[in-house]
Structure formats: C-alpha cells, structure tokens
Amino acid sequence: MPRRAPSFILVAVTVMFGVLMAVMDQAIVNVAIPSIGGSLGASPDEAGWVATGYVLGMMIVMPLNGFLTARFGEKSYYLGAFGLFTVASLLCGLCSSIWVLVAARFVQGLGGGALQPISLAILLRSAPPERRADMVAAFGLASTLPFALGPVIGGWILDNDTWTFPNWPMVFFFKVPLCVAGLIAAAIVLRDDGPAQGDVPPIQWGPFVAMGVMLGTMQFVLSEGQREDWFDSSLILVLTIVTIVLFAYFVWAQARAARPFVNLQVFKTVSFSVGCVLSVVSGFGLYGINLVTPLFFQGPLHLTPYDSGVFLLQGTIATSLVMPIIGPLTRLIDVRLVLAAALAMFAAGAWMMGGLTSEAGYWDIFWPRVLQGLALGMLFVPLITVTLSQIGSRFMSDATGIATLVRYLGGNIGIALLQVLQVNRAAAALSSLAGRANLANPTIAHAIQTLGVTRAQALLWGLIQSNASVVAYLYLFRVSALLFLFTIPLLLALPNPNAARKTVTEPVVRVA
C-alpha cells in the first residue's frame, strides 16, 4: 500500500526546524566570538573569521541548490545538509585551535547554507498554490526569529558558570541533540522523491572553481576592507579585480553553457529580477541594521550581550505576530502596496532610532524596534512570494538558491557600507567635537580648574570619543532610513501580482 503524503503543515514544521537551527547558529556564535578568541588565544581579527568562515560556506553552496537537488532529490539533499550541519556543530565545539575552528565553521556553513534554500523549495512545492504565501511566512519566521533569540540564548550560555569547561563550546554542543531530533523527524515526514528524471547537468569545473574563488575573495574584501583601509591596500585592490574578473567569467560561462549548473536564466523573469534587487535592500535591513543595532546597544548604551538581546526582542515579537496574517492579507491587497508600507515603516523606525541619545532606555527603543519588526514581517513574506511568483516548479530550486544568496549578499554589502560610513562619520564628529574643546568653553575651563590638566584631558577625551561614537551610529540609522525610502519607487517595476499568480514562467535552458 503506497504511503500517504504527509500534511503540508507537518512538512512545514519539520523543515522550519532545520532553518531555525542554521540561522540561530549564526546569531548565537556572533555573540560568542570575543569569548572564543580569548579562550583560543586568537586576535580579534583571527576570531572574526569564525563568523566569516560560516558565511563563506553558506554563500558557496546556495547557488548550487538547483543542481544538487536535481542530483540527489529533495529529501536526500535536505537530510545530507542537516547531517553535515549537525556533525560540524559537534566538531566546532571540540576544536582547540582557532584555524581548525574556522575550517569546521566553513563545513558547518555548507550545511547551514544548503538548508535554507532547499527548505524554502520544499515548503513551496508541498503546499497548494494559494497557500504559498503562508509557507513563505513560515520560512520567514524561522529565518528572523533566531536573530533576537540568538543573543539572549548565547548571552545566557556565556554567562553561565556551571560548565566544567570553557563556556563557548556549549553554543555548539547544545544544538547537537536538537539537530538529531530534527533529522529523525525529517527522515520520517519528508517524501522521498528521488533524483530528477533525465540527465542532471554536469559540473563544469572551471566555472565552479571560479564561482568559489569569486565568492571567497568578495567575502574577504567585504569583511576585511575597512580594516585594511579599502583600496589604499594593494591586497584589497587586487582581490577586488580578481572578484570582478571571475564574476564576469562565471556569468559568461553559465550563459553559454548548454546545461548550466547555476541556472541564471531565471533572471529573465521580471518579477524575479526586480525582487532580487529589493532583496538586497531587505538583506541590508535584516543583516546590516541587525548588526549595527546590537553594537549601538553594547557600545554607547553600555548594555551587556544578554540585555542587548532583551532590547531586541520586541522587534522579533512584532515580526512573529504579523507574519501569520500577511499571507492571507496579500491575497486581498495588492502586494506592491504591502511592500511600500513595509519599506516606509522600516524607514520610519530607523529614522526614530537616529534620534536617540546615549541616555536612551528600553521604552525609548521600544516603538522604533516594534515598527522595524512589523515592517520586516510585512516585507519578507510578500517579497519572496512575488519574487518567485512567475517561477515554475521545475526551476524553483534554482530560484530559491539564487534568491537566498542575493539576500545574504545584500546583508554583507550593507554591513561593509555601514562600517565605512560609521568610521568616516565618527572621525568627522571626533574632529569637530575636539575642535570645540578649548579653554574658551566655560565647562572645560571649569573642569581643568577643578580636576587639573591631566585628569580633565583624560575625562574630556573619553567623553568626546563616546559622543562621536553616538553621532556615528545615529547617522547610520538615518542613512538606512533614507535607503529604504528611496527603494519604494522600484516597486513600480514589479508586474501585477494577480496576473503573476496566473502566469508562470519556465526559463529556457538549452539542451545539447
């Protein structure tokens, strides 16, 4: 007797768990990087590669989603990715060298990066067309919730003194039994579809190596560019040129290949191309702003990692509340109007954050974070839905892999851009504030008279640096607000969503 197909709700819960584990790992480990560096005797630059190695592994595997799904089948590929992630998590906690840990994190990133697009493809294929937005909402919730829960969980683990070994390995170990349970559930629930029928495109090793090296050099430039003073560094300049040349070669090779292993033909679909541009902006908000905000909390506001995570919770709660209702809402309202409202709300929240001071408390941050959380919930679901609305099921795995990579690239570009703006604005503010710190200022004259020259100089310099840091962070929030606002006109390029639901595009792939 043939096995009955599982409920798509059960499938959704199962694959959401894998996404949750992969994304939460990234959020938790980022909090633990200082502890990892201190425990393993690594410099801050070396410890930063613990995060970079994971992201690099993710980016390399994401565009291969369509190819690997066709070769192994959805279920086998999902289980393989989850299994690799689980084993690598265990190995990460056992590492005693920083560079061995970076290598293990790269392998873990391969598993985590594969889990996200294959999970989205499984969700979209398992549900009826009218429930696609609901499945995207489930995926979105699993992708955004960890960014608030991660710092809280990571902060608690790092502050807990009951372990008999350094605390940081527990940020990897605690996920292992959870991942094993998720693997067992997936093995039972997911349907075994097997590899794709017909020939699977072969890997063209030249373009494949070019893609891997290109993503690696690009990630290095984005991660280390600010530290190396960007193009004043010959290394950054050379790697940028290498990235551009390899990218051009990769696109050219895949465009002329009879059976490309990364199907760039999906960009011929207008909704997909425009959606990817908007995804860069959403990635900027999800990863860029979500990196800057904790730094602002732990820097000028002097919050602990745990308290910083608590301050971020209200935004995630708002996101989780709005996501379940966005799917049905987009079936009643033009998706473009929902996206415009989301971009405007995110801009308003970021602009309000730009008006804070170093004395800001929880309730000063509450409403800006709620606005950003609501906006993210309204943006994530309809954006993915409309981006994939004209992609046929045959090419869904290709499209989800590329779209996920584009969103992460948007985040990385956003982080690099915000770092540049933060450093430059802080330097300008420092120069301006220091220029006003002279004896003509009655407050400074009084401080010198009361404390003495040496103590007054030390105190004033600390205050000037602190104020310059505040000015720089507030500037970043305001710039981010304007970026989101200026993106709204791009929505006019999206096709009519109602027509998009009825018109599905099957990109043409030449067959030898």
Description:
- 76% of the residues lie in helices and 0% in strands.
- The protein has 512 residues and is an all-alpha fold.
- The chain folds into three domains: 1-200, Up-down Bundle (Growth Hormone, Chain: A), CATH 1.20.1250.20; 205-256; 270-512, Up-down Bundle (Growth Hormone, Chain: A).
- Helix 1 (8-40) runs parallel beside helix 6, helix 2 packs parallel to helix 5 and helix 4 (74-94) packs antiparallel against helix 8.
In short:
This protein has helices at 8-40, 44-61, 65-72, 74-94, 98-126, 132-159, 170-173, 175-189, 205-224, 234-256, 270-298, 305-330, 335-353, 362-387, 396-436, 442-451, 453-487, 497-502. The chain is an all-alpha fold and 512 residues long.
- Poorly predicted regions are 502-512
- How large a portion of the residues is in β-strands, by DSSP E? under 5%
Instruction: Give the helix/strand class.
Output: mainly alpha
> Rg from C-alpha positions?
24 Å
Quaternary organization: single chain
Number of helices: 18
Properties at a glance:
512 residues; 76% helix; Growth Hormone, Chain: A; disordered C terminus; 3 domains; 18 helices; globular; mainly alpha
